[in-house]
Specification:
It is a single chain. By secondary structure, this protein is mostly helical. The chain is built from 6 helices and no strands. The longest helix has 27 residues, at 23-49.
Length: 127
């Protein structure tokens, strides 16, 4: 199994299972996650800047659920910290964690692209 730092393979493999083994759909999901990363974080930053906590909540739910689906649990945890602050209406507290979210998101996206470019041979991934 290929070792990765930001993606948990057993969770990533489950995505393929949830998509009935359709590798093309898994690839599209991953590419969509990567292409939507910057717009999501920009929308989150705008929501926090304008104190639009409802929009921040929606963006964070999207980040957290899609991160979980691809196995990006460190990214999900970082988004969870921000989400907890948003739920408490603590914008300053939320903003303290945004830089780490951006950093982890960029690293996660880079790792996902690497994984797509270096697929494991069939039958070698751990489910």
């Amino acid at each position: 199994m290929i070792q990765t730092r930001y993606i948990e393979h057993h969770r990533y493999s489950r995505l393929l299972d949830h998509l009935s083994g359709d590798a093309a759909s898994q690839r599209r999901f991953v590419l969509d996650f990567v292409s939507l990363w910057t717009p999501r974080t920009e929308r989150l930053q705008q929501a926090l800047t304008t104190n639009n906590l409802q929009d921040a909540d929606v963006v964070l739910l999207s980040i957290r659920s899609s991160s979980t689906m691809i196995g990006a649990m460190m990214l999900e945890a970082a988004a969870g910290l921000i989400h907890s602050a948003v739920k408490r209406r603590d914008v300053a507290g939320a903003e303290k964690h945004v830089a780490r979210l951006h950093e982890l998101g960029g690293l996660t996206c880079a790792e996902l692209i690497w994984m797509l470019e270096h697929p494991e041979p069939a039958g070698t991934s751990a489910s």
